[in-house]
Amino acid sequence: MLNWGAARKPSVPGALLTVSYRQPGVVLTDRHFTVPLDHDAPTGETIELYAREVVASDKAHQDLPWLVYLQGGPGFGANRFVGQGAWLGRALKEYRVLLLDQRGTGHSTPANRQTLPLRGAPAQQADYLTHFRADSIVRDCEAIRRDVTGGAPWTVLGQSFGGFCTVNYLSTAPEGLTAAVITGGLPSLDAHADDVYRAAYPRIERKVAAHYVRYPQDVERARRIADHLISNDVVLPNGYRLTAEAFQSLGIVLGGSEGSHRLHYLLEDAFVRTPQGPALSDAFQEEVQGLLSYASHPLYALVHEAIYGQDARPTAWSAERVRAEFPQFDAAKTLAGDGPLLFTGETIHPWMFDCDPALRPLRETAELLAARTDWTPLYDSARLAANEVPVAAAVYHDDMYVDTAHSLATARAIRGLRTWVTDEFEHDGVRAGGPRVLDRLLALTRDEA
User: Fold this and answer.
1) Helix (H) or strand (E) holding 410
2) Catalytic pick from 160, 249, 318, 407?
3) pLDDT digits 0-9 by tens, 312-351
């Protein structure tokens, strides 16, 4: 009988010791790998990757095909499931699943305000972070696949930014894939960041309008909070400077299935009476700092616009520049009138590196990344047009994070890709929909639906 708490020797050099243990219904194995920082310099500097292998308890000794999960982001480690939650239970019916902490995230070699100074000055930090885009993540997958599967191809499930990585996979290493499943993550193949955000702000405005239709009482609540922040210097307990713009950025939650409700409950408890007059409550401040802080995922802020860089044009704080084309998002102008305050969405702004203590030391590094003019293409249109890998993608109608029109144009450009366009779910449908979303998409890759 296997001792699930025991360490196992790695099968090849470069992989570290693995440890297995149990949760309800599953056996988990910690996997560690060493990969080049720059895959074009394989004998140079290396970084560590962490992945969690998951298999159903009753299939632990079976020879199963593999599914590798690529998390959304960029900058988030893979989901930390307990048992067989969300889509995982469906996957475990037929696969061993590898939950990969993409480079720089989770338990892989971290990249944050504490570790990046090891690289040197901001210029060296920015150079280092150019290796944290989809192309490097896919090459990581190919490097570890040989150890995980013995060289056999695997199925990839890409959620959101993980879908961007999956399209890069199809462009650069389709021989490593038996099938590809994408949820809310079909990127434009050629749009500049400016194009992405020009399409994004109208979608965000629609989501905010829908929120106020559902919760009309929140119109006055949001205006009152924003007015308070314009008139007062508010610093949250963790040192985050809460400005009106930062408050507006809480609209990022509106892209999720429960986001509107979560925002409503947050706004209704914002103020308390004190001897000095109304003040933002401790409970409100505590929840807000958890939503706004990038301490757990700084890469999201640092390389978010870089995921759209594909040529010599700098991203140059695209979301901030494009926002100026939509003056209805200006809080001060809104409060001067009587209209509803608009929240913002999945946008990164330079002021975040002033407000957030987890980002402040990285402001110059972020500026250098925004100014880069040497980004390389991430997708190969010709190779995608000749694709032979079975691919299916869920495209969420009016997805707040990924433009539906961009996604459908890309779907048409990938040979054989089958889409499921639905308004039943928001961007987090693969989580909120439990096993149904993955089940439908796997069936599409097999021509069973």
Assistant:
1) helix 404-413
2) 160
3) 999 999 999 999 999 999 999 999 999 999 999 999 999 9
Domain 7-190+379-445 has CATH 3.10.150.10: no
Where do the DSSP E strands lie in 112-218? 154-159, 177-183
Q: Is 446 exposed, middle or buried (0-12, 13-18, 19+ CB in 10 A)?
A: exposed
Catalytic residue among 63, 374, 423, 447: 374
What 3-state class would DSSP assign to 114? coil
Measured N-to-C along each axis, helices 259-268 and 193-214 cross at an angle, to the nearest 10 degrees, of 60
Q: Known catalytic residue: 190?
A: no
Strands (DSSP E) found in 239-370: 241-242, 271-274, 277-280
Active site (annotated) includes residue 374: yes
C-alpha closest to that of 235 among 243, 225, 227:
243
Residue type, 27: V
Strand spans (E) along 230-270: 234-235, 241-242
Q: Report how far apart, in Å, the C-alpha atoms of 433 and of each of 25, 70, 99, 157, 359 are.
A: 20, 18, 19, 15, 34
β-bridge pairing 277-280 and 271-274: antiparallel
d(CA 275, CA 198): 45
427 catalytic? Reply is yes
Domains of the chain, residue spans: 7-190+379-445, 193-371
Token pair in block for residue 164: 């961007």
Q: Which residues contact 179 (CB under 8 A, 6 or more apart)?
A: 155, 156, 389, 390, 391, 392, 442, 445, 446
Instruction: Give the model's confidence band at 16: pLDDT under 50 very low, under 70 low, under 90 confident, else very high.
Output: low
Tens digits of residue pLDDT in 224-277: 999 999 999 999 999 999 999 999 999 999 999 999 999 999 999 899 999 999
41 class by beta-carbon count within 10 Å (0-12 exposed, 13-18 middle, 19+ buried): exposed
Contact (Cβ atoms closer than 8 angstroms) between residue 35 and residue 49: yes
**Could you say which of 131, 228, 349, 427 is catalytic?**
427
According to DSSP, residue 307 is labeled G
At 43-76, the pLDDT tens digits run: 999 999 999 999 999 999 999 999 999 999 999 9
Q: DSSP character for 15?
A: B
Q: Which helix (H) or strand (E) holds 287?
A: helix 282-292
